[in-house]
Design a protein that fits this description.
Cytochrome b; about 190 residues; electron transport
Length: about 190
């Protein structure tokens, strides 16, 4: 039983579901983005993949907004006492940077498609759509595209670092950092 004097050692089920759902969708989006830009030549297939990417991006934005709001009111589990202070600070910084990059990639993508000279709104299930943010503007669209792509590559690198850090905690440090985000008893 956890008392006020005993810090929580695991993320709640809500936190775990939000984390793993967002993580899976973001990895899917990064992979899909690379695939559709670098390897798809068929215009019809590329169009369909872009539409899927845009729709999924809107869903990721919604989930990340929920997650960020939830996180504002939920304290993180205590980090291991054996974890050096500099690693604790790096961990907090990387998590803030992850949130910032995720929202940055999503917003840049939204501006990119909104300002496109082919102003197709983001389609949602049920026939709904997300309206374009701005009027068509080729230069703005191209600038937002560059920002979207560059931030996505930085995000990929940071996600890789995050995964490596989780594995370090499990395999090298043998502490409970990774387990705190895994389902199961704690």
């Amino acid at each position: 039983m956890i008392t006020a004097a005993t810090p929580r050692r695991r993320w709640s089920g809500v936190g775990q579901v939000l984390h793993w759902t967002c993580a899976g969708l973001i990895l899917f989006m990064l992979g899909l983005g690379l695939y559709m830009v670098e390897w798809v030549d068929d215009p019809a297939q590329k169009f369909d993949l872009y539409q899927l990417h845009k729709t999924t991006g809107a869903f990721v934005f919604l989930l990340m907004a929920i997650r960020a709001l939830w996180r504002l009111f939920t304290a993180a589990p205590a980090l291991p006492q054996t974890m050096p202070r500099h690693e604790q600070l790096i961990s907090k910084g990387v998590h803030l940077l992850l949130y910032g990059l995720i929202f940055g990639v999503l917003i840049a993508g939204y501006v990119y498609v909104s300002a496109s000279t082919l102003p197709l709104p983001i389609e949602l299930p049920g026939g709904y759509h997300v309206p374009n943010l701005v009027a068509p503007d080729y230069e703005l669209s191209e600038s937002a595209k560059v920002v979207h792509h560059r931030l996505a590559f930085v995000l990929m690198a940071l996600v890789g670092l995050h995964i490596l850090a989780a594995l370090k905690h499990r395999l090298w440090d043998r502490d409970e950092v990774l387990q705190s985000m895994l389902p199961g008893r704690g």
